[in-house]
Write a structure and sequence with these properties.
140 residues, elongated, single chain, alpha+beta, three-stranded mixed beta sheet, 9 strands, disordered N terminus, 3 helices
Length: 140
């Protein structure tokens, strides 16, 4: 019984410590049209869209600028996005859709890539053959 009483007194303290130790974060999900474009930030590959990134929480009522995001598709199409968001509540979440330029040729290459990702044929972020395509376009 003494053991249970000890736990009873310590539990509120543990809950307070646990709640203080986790840092709330603001997150943003980047998605692309067509799906599964390669997402870059500061020239480094972050992964395939959709991709969610988190950052430390910012003050409510303040604006926050996210780093410029570049999206490359296997056809060589490139789109960029840089946004500023108003943080309205702690742990706010934003969703951004970045569209492929309509005037870029070879949309069928990008649609085929998206289908291969959906089928599980591409899982590591860079498909075989796509790395050379990106190097040719100066993206990697």
């Amino acid at each position: 019984m003494k053991f249970l009483a000890f736990i009873g007194y310590q539990l509120p303290l543990l809950l307070i410590i646990a709640s203080c130790s986790s840092t709330p974060s603001t997150s943003i999900t980047y998605d692309t049209v067509p799906k599964h474009g390669y997402i870059y930030s500061n020239g480094e590959l972050m992964g395939l869209a959709p991709l969610t990134v988190s950052t430390e929480d910012h003050q409510v009522g303040k604006h926050y600028s996210f780093n410029e995001i570049t999206v490359n598709w296997p056809s060589g199409a490139i789109a960029t996005f840089q946004g500023e968001f108003l943080i309205e509540k702690p742990r706010d979440h934003f969703y951004v859709i970045i569209e492929r330029p309509e005037d870029h040729p070879d949309i069928e290459i990008d649609n085929s890539h998206a289908a291969r990702v959906r089928m599980g044929l591409i899982t590591s972020g860079i498909a075989n053959g796509d790395r050379q395509n990106f190097v040719n376009h100066g993206s990697l």
